[in-house]
Write a structure and sequence with these properties.
four-stranded parallel β-sheet, three-stranded parallel β-sheet, 51% helix, globular
């Protein structure tokens, strides 16, 4: 069985969500997961992203991944979408293979034969459209005021670890507008903390929970 290391804290709620879902899925398979977790600081990481210091962010994350390797991990995971902004800078700095969330998203979209999607997540994730890492799919950007609303709603959820009725209603309204106005086939819930608000069953619009597909890939590695 492969051991998987998780860079936690990006943020805490996302780490807890991944841990709970991974262990539940492994239990259902009769597998005892071999996991190691280290704690990074979400505010420090977000600061590097805001400042565009991707090399510094990559150095910061690489140090945690190196610690996971020393703890026996055979692969590493970043349980958040936004830190994947520095994958190009991070990959040459690490020895462990990374279970990349963007790869998992791409596989899910190909399976569902979806070609036109939009993102809900942090402002950086939405504006970056997964930073050119997702091929073969058109990512439609919400309008500027919509990005601002989703970004604020996401940050509020991250900070409070609970949903807010006005945020939920606004996200559903924007999703409906993206479908009607822009022909979007599905919304990628590209922010793990959105699970606090809703999931694929309760969202009320066609969506893919990126954390879920990432967790599925992690569980496959743990079960191998």
């Amino acid at each position: 069985m492969a051991s998987v290391g998780i860079v936690g804290g990006l943020g805490v709620g996302a780490t807890v969500h991944y841990y709970e879902k991974i262990t539940a899925a492994c239990k259902a398979r009769g597998v005892i997961p071999d996991l190691a977790i280290v704690h990074a600081d979400v505010d420090k990481g977000q600061g590097f992203v805001r400042e565009g210091r991707l090399d510094v962010l990559a150095d910061y994350l690489a140090a945690f991944i190196e610690r996971l390797g020393r703890a026996g991990a055979a692969a590493a995971v970043l349980p958040a979408v936004t830190p994947h902004i520095c994958i190009a800078e991070l990959t040459p700095r690490i020895k462990l293979p990374l279970i990349n969330i963007v790869d998992a998203i791409g596989a899910e979209l190909r399976k569902r034969q979806l070609k036109r999607v939009a993102l809900f997540g942090t402002t950086f994730t939405m504006q970056g459209s997964l930073w050119g890492q997702l091929s073969g799919v058109e990512i439609v950007k919400p309008q500027a005021d919509e990005i601002a609303f989703v970004g604020r709603a996401y940050q509020r959820t991250l900070d409070t670890q609970r949903g807010h009725d006005e945020d939920t209603a606004g996200l559903r309204r924007i999703a409906a507008d993206l479908q009607r106005r822009d022909g979007v086939e599905a919304i990628l819930l590209a922010g793990t903390d959105l699970a606090v608000i809703f999931d694929e069953e309760t969202a009320g619009f066609p969506c893919i929970d990126c954390a879920r597909v990432h967790i599925d890939a992690i569980v496959e590695r743990l079960s191998a």
